[in-house]
Amino acid sequence: MNVKTLCLGILTFHEASGYEIKKMIEEGMFSHFIDASYGSIYPALTQMLGENLVTVRAEEQTGRPDKKVYAISAEGRRALAEALQVMPAHDKFKSEFLFQMLLGAEIDDGHIEQVYDAQLVRLADELARVEACTEHADDHAGTRFVNGYGRAVLAAAVDYMRRVRSETLAGATRRQAAEWRHAE
Fold this sequence. Notes:
Blueprint (H helix, E strand, L loop, with lengths): L2 H9 L6 H9 L11 H13 L3 E8 L2 E9 L1 H10 L12 H7 L6 H27 L5 H28 L2 H13 L1
Antiparallel strand pairs: 1-2
């Protein structure tokens, strides 16, 4: 998926400025898809405006320049529908946390416990955020599915980490495994 498709998708929910689009990508319900910088959002909006995929109107602001508010056009909806008629790329999951857990036997017991507990807190916080979004979600089938999927994945990760915490953080076991690997 490219930034243009992402912006068109966001604009199907409501009109927005480039700044508001960026906020939705960073913190809103679109934060789980692809990253996009202002340096890619604004050129995409300009290009889409030239292609008649979006419209723009100026919204007056007190003490600031007018805000450009974009809306998807009928042509933009057709272009979005066409762009979505592809098989999505495989999800990519990269995690420094999992790398550290893989090599946990090489890490000081106190540090690995801090890393583990910090990750558990982050996941639990993200789960709470998704659950809060679910409570306020509209009756949009796609929103319900994405929130439910996110909730299921995060709940499974939190549950797993809580269940295996003591076993995973058993320092003697980790050190023994490391010694066995080094002896081979």
